[in-house]
């Protein structure tokens, strides 16, 4: 009788441990096989939905000149096409933002500039949104 009770307890404990292990693996790795987020875009999709701005040359608040270029990542091909049509507004946003910066701000605050450009572009976009802005070329004179 004791050995029968012991076997039942041992089988029950084994089943609980097995179920716990399966639950832990499911929670940690999810349903995507541990490959990360299922929403991640391939690099080909990112390139297809990105727009490279022309180089823009303008002056800073302290009289320094800057030449800068960005790669703007949109959330769709429609948004990219809209952004291409809004290039004049993009240039205007950049000129206004850069006019408020001095040389030191420009050297240390590129992330702030990228965030401001993204925010202001998203305010005017109607066919999609801007996911990210990357500085791909900059020259300070």
Share in helix: 40-55%
Summed over residues and divided by their number, the pLDDT gives a mean of 86
Structural class: alpha+beta
Over the alpha carbons, how many angstroms does the gyration radius reach?
27 Å
H-E string? HHEEEHHHHE
Between the first and last Cα atoms, what is the distance in angstroms? 91 Å
Q: Low-confidence stretches at least 5 residues in length (pLDDT < 50)?
A: none
Task: Tell me the number of helical segments per DSSP (H or I, 4 or more residues long).
Answer: 6
* Shape, per Cα inertia axes: elongated
**Main β-sheet description:** 4 strands, antiparallel
Would you report the number of β strands? Answer: 4
**Residue fraction in strands:** 15-25%
Describe the structure.
With about 140 residues, the chain is of the alpha+beta class. Helix content is about 55%, strand content about 20%. It has six helices and four strands; from the N terminus they run ααβββααααβ. Strands 1, 2, 3 and 4 form a four-stranded antiparallel sheet that branches. Helix 4 runs antiparallel to helix 6 (about 110-125). The chain is elongated. It starts with a helix and ends with a strand. The mean pLDDT is about 85.
